[in-house]
Amino acid sequence: MSNVKISVIVPVYQVKESYLKECLHSILHQTMQELELLIVDDGAPEKIEKVISHYAGLDERVRVLRQQHAGVSAARNTGLKAAGGKYVTFVDSDDHIAQDNLEKVFAFAEENELEIAVWGTYKCFPERREEYMPFTATIPILREEEKRDLMLKTMVGDWSVYGKRCTKYGSGSCCAKLYLRSFLTKFSLVYPVGIVRSEDVNFNLRAFDKADRIGYLHQFFYFYRQLQESATYRYREGGIAIFEDALHGLKQFLDQNEKPELFYQAYYMRCIFFLLEGMNTDYLHPENPKRLPVRLRELRKKMGEDPFADAAVRIQGKYFGFTKRIPVFLTRHRMAALMALFFTLYNRLK
């Protein structure tokens, strides 16, 4: 197709067939017809390949790009290289989008000559859904302070320094965004291969930083399925290591772009946040076979290592509420048992 307005990139690896079918159906039944669907088969199993082939045979707008399993960042980059649309957007294979999603965000981006358009998401749990968005009203073009807040929120989330238009949520996901393809090409913006978790945060921080024209549309078009079997909740021995790679990428971005201290404070808090996330993937995961005292000793050792120990020392408490100061204090003093207790109680109260 020569008149492609939007290239939709869907990396596919391990996913339930029913989820993938819902995802692809939602894209091919958009009110906008001038799109191409790039399905990146990242070494998916045979039963998933059959689903992909079925949809490729249904619609000439579907292109299938096959590669050996290389991870989601490499798969998204494969899609970017092949994209021919004026804009690109990403949809995860277990999510889906509203029928008028692409039509509405394309019009919004064109009207405001945007390099990046952002919109709202529904986080879909089995029995409920929650609104997830960085701002509380449509902003055709973000001012400099709003762009700063978007970047800070993308790094760490809830801060008291935000204005009234902001929510506590960031916008690190690659989804629910439309990127001008020529903008991405101009600045050679690609996903960081080798970073397993928060690769999209690393990508979006760099994209937001380079963009002069970012807009937020206060509508909810993206349905983000919350899965217990996803990578967020899967047990990994030494699982904290996957977060350290992401943190290295964030620190590199700050240093290379000479960001002010406020950005470093967000980075330090992200370090503590990732240490807590390690509870989900390792230290307190129910599938961890090690005895609890062994896990706590490992946690205490990690609390004394950088970047976590350095972050706990450098964080300035004035920027954060009481709840966020607790894990900082516990990390600084390497109180592993209390950290585990805090995390357990905090999860129950959420």
Written account of the structure:
With 350 residues, this protein is of the alpha/beta class. It folds into 2 domains: 6-225, Alpha-Beta Complex (Spore Coat Polysaccharide Biosynthesis Protein SpsA, Chain A); 241-349, no CATH class. The protein contains 13 helices and 9 strands. Strands 1, 2, 3, 4, 5, 6, 7, 8 and 9 form a 9-stranded mixed sheet that branches. A hairpin with a 4-residue loop joins β6 and β7 (129-132).
Radius of gyration: 20 Å
CATH architecture of the largest domain: Alpha-Beta Complex
Sheet having the most strands: 9 strands, mixed
- Number of separate structural domains: 2
Query: What characteristic shape results from the CA principal axes?
Result: globular
What is the strand and helix layout of this fold?
Layout: E1 6-12, H1 17-28, E2 35-42, H2 46-58, E3 62-67, H3 72-82, E4 87-90, E5 96-97, H4 101-112, E6 116-124, E7 129-132, H5 144-156, E8 177-180, H6 181-186, H7 199-210, E9 214-225, H8 241-256, H9 261-283, H10 292-303, H11 308-314, H12 322-332, H13 336-349
Helix pairs in contact: 1-2, 5-7, 5-9, 7-8, 8-9, 9-11, 11-12, 12-13
